[in-house]
Every structure is written in structure tokens, then in C-alpha cells.
Amino acid sequence: MPLTSKHLLGLHGVPREDIQMILDTATTFREVLDRPIKKVPTLKGKTIVNLFFENSTRTRISFELAQKRLTADTINFSTSTSATKKGETFKDTVRNIEAMKVDMIVVRHQSAGVPQFLTRISDANIINAGDGRHEHPTQALLDMYSIREKLGKLEGLKVCIVGDVAHSRVALSNIYGLQAMGAQVSVCGPATLIPWQIEKLGVKVYHNIDKAIKESDVLNVLRIQLERDAGVSIPSTREYHKYFGVTKKRIDNFNKDILILHPGPINRGVEITSEVADGPYQVILNQVTNGVAVRMSVLYLLGTMNTNNLR
Amino acid sequence: MQIVLKGITLVNPAQNINEAKDLLIKDGVIEKVGDILEEELKESKVYDFSGKYCVPGLYDMHVHLREPGKEHAETVETGCDSAAAGGFTGVAAMPNTSPCTDSAEVIRFIIEKAKDHLVDVNPIGAVTVGRKGEALAPIAEMVEAGAVGFSDDGTVVKTAAVLRSALEYSSMYDAPIIEHCEDESLAGGAMNESFVSTQLGLPSIPTVAEDLIVMRDIIMTEYAGGRVHIAHISSKQSVEFVREAKKKGIKVTAEVTPHHFTLTDECCKTYDPNFKMNPPLRSKEDVDAMIEGLKDGTIDCIASDHAPHASEDKEVEFVYSPNGIIGLETQLGLAVSELLHKKHLTFEQLVEKLSINPRKILNLPVPKFEAGEKANLTIIDTDVVWTADKSEFKSISKNSPFDKRLMTGKSLATINNNKMFFEGEFREI
Ligand SMILES: [Zn+2]
Questions:
Q1: Domain count along chain B
Q2: How far apart are CA A286 and CA A261, in angstroms?
Q3: Mean pLDDT over residues B116-139, rounded?
């Protein structure tokens, strides 16, 4: 059964069955990654462009590796080599890339909505690799994959997203995806880092980290951006750590098993201590490996869904 | 040359006229109102507008003509063409040009560019030099050159101290200070702050950014004197502030754009940059408050905030796209569809908002239907159903969110300065 959309723009509105299929297919690819020869010919002859208008080495490498494992032809286009700096418009850049007959575009951009914009000017399958503070669906899918791998399910779990939710592109995707899979999602952070009216998404809001830890099965800890808005949102990372940092002591208080995720890169000693980041509850490194499997799954399902798209 | 407009109903609330009478116009001047003789008809070119309305030429007090500086997006001439096609015989040109309209020279340049056109152009001068918010621009010299109001539009008059000076100084000439109300420290977002902005992950501008400045300006006007005009009002709370201020007799007036009484921030869900403007599209509650404000007179007039942008500038990533849309050619259609046909305003009220009130705010004479008066009028068909098509717009730029929108009501002809715009072209009369 194919996915219901030819693009992966976000997880908003994506049906449970689609997410289920992506995660199940990722399990198959995860096994491939453990083989001595980690390559399958599934996307042979397909051309995929990684269109990165914003620097993100780890996401790009993860996608690139997934593409290589699927035997696709990969072109990387990042801002350092971008024509947009020379005054060419975004539209012209994309049309030029389109003229190279690409089948899929993986796009990362600091402006929300660029993947949607691309669907209007390109016939390729579009995969959102992060747009502004909007969505980052493959990150959320790999988070969900990692939770499911560790806890065996998503349904009924209580997952709390902790930290700079307002400026995060991971939070919304996680909320939509996890809710579709039957999990209960909450967010925790200082009021200034919680988006306007987020409770309308059916999300519980905590301003007390201890309470969040107490009531959650999983914490997805987001990076606190040190350079963000010069102290207007939070007084200091020191104060943030004091009141919202995820520490071993805080977790031990409740004497419970709790799973810790972090999309990286980690600010050790700010949102999370090394003890926790490297400790027994984390799945952070699994997340990286799982990321390749999940991206293989997405590329495979979109790349093979419609033979009319084959050129 | 002489023409007769036949079968029309004259509507001019300023004269208390609403009656079916033909007009005889000779060399651009009204020769006779009604009782036109057989022989006069024979000597005239007769335009049969049976069943249509004839109103004092519509006036848009908030238009960006882009000249000097961005002639690839619009010029004085093409902007005026667009106005005439949309039913407007006069526009006020905002000063955020390049160079800035902050001197008598630039005021005269714009007037000179428009002098042979059907459409009258009344420039608005900048309040401060370079619209920087620091030193007052030469307001008196600009008044003498023909400026009819002052604004740093695009941005707010930055400080209360400068606003106070501007109000006091401009009060000597009874010229309004036209304010783009937006607290700068809360500005910079790409859309309205709401649940929708949270869903879309777009940086947002809260309504309080507008409310704070509307209140500041009202308080300052009460204290310092002068007149303040709130440009493109968009928030429910701001409308309430203006309503209360008017009750207290403070000299404040306000305009609203068609997009702010028609569209909501839900439109941004497409990430189509043609829904990006400043102030941004607000919530349904705010839209309802705009209509309420128009109905009870809190909002004096409708203005387009016509803001042309070339497609290479506008059709980019939502966050990077410049604010604003064109509006001269869809304004009347939207006003008639959304306000008249939905029974929020009477036709007379519509004429007040689109013709009479903006002229009063700028101290411009209101055209009259009387022998000896200059013919300055718009013929309106309130019932014609049509579809907006940006490829037919006279404006150089095509940045409209209303392309392909079905509307009821349209201008059939405009007459002013001894010229007529009819059936898509200008003709001498
Ligand atoms: Zn403005």
C-alpha cells in the first residue's frame, strides 16, 4: 500500500497508517544496516538533490548516507555554493535544479513553508529536512522509531518535549506524529519558550521540570540555543539549567525508568547533564543510526510509490 | 466636446442627493444636471449607463506609487492607470520612495509626473527626514509644494517626543499625521501571532504591537493637538480605542484595507507570499471588528494600501518576501461584495468611505453634481459579477491574493480632468 501523499512536508495531517508504514519499513532497513554489505539497489537510477539553504551537517550526512545505501544518485547543493547569494532568486535556483531532471528534493531552509513553496514550482517528490521553526518530520519519525524500539510501543505513552519549544522545528512534528500514534504529548519549559496557544493542539504545558519528569515515560530534550535573542527569552543558560535542566538527581528523585531523547547537538550542562546524556536511560546514539534507517524508509516509500514519476 | 451620461442615478451623500438624473458634461465641466433637451442630446456623445450609479470620484488615501525609486514595480503613471481602472479619480501617494518623499522637490516631482493624468495625485510627505524618526522633515515647505498629510508609513513615528512635535507643527496647517501603528520592538514577524502562527512555525506580530501605538497616538493627540489618522487599522482592540477616543472628541480618524475586512490569517496556511502584508491578516474576530467599526463610523474610510512588488522580489520564501499587496483594482469589488451585498453598509455609506471621508480627512474638496463644477465622478455597477484576473491589471505588479476571486460590483467608468476611462482605455471628452 502506498503512502497517501507524494511529499513529506511535515507530519501534520499524516494518517496513522502512513506513519506505521514508514516505521515498519524502517525496521527492515535497520536490519540492512547491520549487514556486512549495507546497500540495496532499490532506488537505482533515481536522482536526489539535497538542497540545503541552511547548514546542518548531521541531517545532510544522514540523508546522504540513506541515499547511498539505496543506490540513488545524489547531488548536494548547499548555501555555501548557492546561487541565491549571487542574487539569483530561490525560484530560479529550484527551476535550474529541476531542469537537471531530479526525482526527489530533500530541502532544508530557515524560512518556514519553503517545502510547500517547492511543491508549487517542482514536480519532484519533496522531503522536508527542516523548515524554519515549522516542521522536521524525519527527525520526529526517528524519535518515534527510537521510542518504539526501546519501549515496544507508542500508544498510550506520555512523552514530554522539554526546552526551547518555541524556536524548535522538531517539537511540532513530534506532537503531530506522536498524537497520531496514540501517545500523549506535553511540553515543558519557561513560558517564554512555549509557543502561543500550543495547548490548542491538545498538549499539556509544564513550567516545572520535576513534575514533567514525574508524569512522563519519555523526555525529548531540545537544545537551548545560546545565541538566541540575547537574553530576551531567558535570563541565562545558568538559570535555565538550574530550573529546567535534566539532571540525574532530578530523575533519581522519582526512582523510575524514563527514556531520554535529544535531537542533538547537545549543550552539555545546559539542557542536560553529561551524566544523563551518556547514562543508561538515553537512546541518543541509537537515534543517529535509526535516523539513517528512517530516512531510507521515507526515500524508498516516496521514490517507488508512483511509476508515473519515473523519468 | 460634450457628452451625456444617460440613465444614471446620482448618489452624493455630501449633497444629500440620491436621484435619477442625467448629466451633461462639456469640456470636463458639468454643464447641466437633468432636464437635458433633445437638441443637446444630438450634439453630444451619449453614454447609456441605465440603472447604474454615478458617485463623486472615488479616492484612495493610501497608495504606494513606487516612483521615484522602484519604477520596475510601479510608476506614478501606471499606478494612476490602475487607480482609474479600479474606479478611483484620486489617490494619496505614500512617501516611502527612494529618495524618500521628505522634501518639496520630491513632492513637486510626483505632482509633475501626474499632472496630465485623469487621476489626481496628492503626495503625503514624510514626517521625519529619511523616515528615520529623528529630525522633522520640512513640513511647511512640503505643504506649500502640495503635500496633504504626513507619514513615516512603513514604520511608526519612532518616539513620543517626535510624534508630539509632528502633531504640534502639522496642526498649523491642519494636516493629519498618518500613522503606521506598530511598536518596533514587537515588529519583524511574518504573520499575525495566533494559533495559526504556532501551527505554521512562522515568526509573528501580535495585535498589541498595533494597539500600543494606537493608544500612544490617541493620548498624544489629545495632549498635543493636531490630528492623527490611523492607517490600515487591523486589530479589534485598536478599533475599540479609536471608538472611545472619538466619543471623547479627540481628533482621530481611521482607515481599513479590503484585505483586513475580507481575509484572515488562516490564508497564510498556503505559505503564499501574496498573503503577507503589514499589518498582517488577523483573526476572524478582528475581521468582524473591522466591519463593526465601518458600520458605526469608528472607521472613516477604506483604503487599499496598494503596495506593488515585482514578482522577482515578492515570489520568494514567505519570511523573506516583502510586505504588501496591490489593491486598487480589486478594492471596489471587495467593498461592494463584502459590505454592500452582505448588508453591512448602505450604498451611501460606501460612497462616504470610498470617496467623501478620505477627501475630508485630507482637506480636499468633495466633487459635486452641480452646473459649473468640474466633472469628477465614477460610474458603478453594483450587480455585475466578475472574476479578478491579474493579467488584466493595469498595475505593473501582480502581487494580489484576490486573483481569480469572484466579485460582485465594479467601476464601469471614471471621469476627471477632462478625461474618461471606459472599456479599458483612456479617452478625451
Ligand atoms: Zn503601513
A1: 2
A2: 10
A3: 97
- Domains identified in chain A, total number: 2
Give every strand in the sheet of B2-6, ordered side by side.
B29-33, B23-26, B2-6, B45-48
Domain that holds residue B331: 57-361
Q: Which domain holds residue A268?
A: 137-288
Residues A232 and A125 in one domain: no
| Inside any domain, residue A171 | yes
pLDDT, position A310: 36
One-letter amino acid for residue A272 of the chain: I
Q: Where are the beta strands (DSSP E) in B144-273?
A: 149-151, 177-179, 191-192, 204-205, 228-230, 252-256
Q: Check residue A100 and give its pLDDT.
A: 83
Contact B204 A110 (CB under 8 A): no
Rounded to the nearest integer, the mean pLDDT of chain A is: 90
Cell numbers standing for residue A52: 540545503
ipTM score of complex: 0.89
- What confidence tier does A307 reach under pLDDT thresholds 50, 70, 90? very low
| Residues of chain B found within 8 Å of residue A195, distances taken between Cβ atoms | 198
For residue B408, give every residue at least 6 positions away whose Cβ sits within 8 Å of its Cβ, in sequence order, or none.
B333, B336, B337, B341, B382, B383, B384, B385, B386
Helix axes A284-303, A57-69, angle to 10 degrees: 50
Render pLDDT for A190-218 as a digit per residue (tens, 0 to 9): 999 999 999 999 999 999 999 999 999 99
Grid coordinates representing A195?
A: 509557543
Q: Which residues of chain B lie closer than 8 angstroms to A117, CB-CB?
A: 271, 317-318
A44 and A158 inside one domain = no
Inter-chain touch A132–B319, beta carbons under 8 Å: yes
Average pLDDT value for residue range A47-71: 93
- For ligand 1, the distance from its centroid to the CA atom of residue B4, given in whole angstroms, is 40
User: Are A231 and A123 contained in the same domain?
Assistant: no
Residue keyed to cell 444617460? B6
Nearest-CB residue to A197 (from B198, B203, B319): B198
Please check whether residues B299 and B247 belong to one and the same domain. Answer: yes
Mean pLDDT, chain B, whole residue set: 97
For residue A178, the model assigns a pLDDT of 98
In this structure, the answer to whether residues A81 and A220 fall within a common structural domain is no
Q: Are residues A141 and A282 in the same domain?
A: yes
Question: What DSSP designation does B136 have?
Answer: B
Interface test with A, best of B184, B186, B200, B321 (most A CBs within 10 A): B200
For residues B50 and B63, membership in a common domain is answered with no
pLDDT tens profile B59-103:
999 999 999 999 999 999 999 999 999 999 999 999 999 999 999
Active site residues of B: 305
Q: Which of B193, B195, B202 sits opposite A132 (nearest CB)?
A: B202
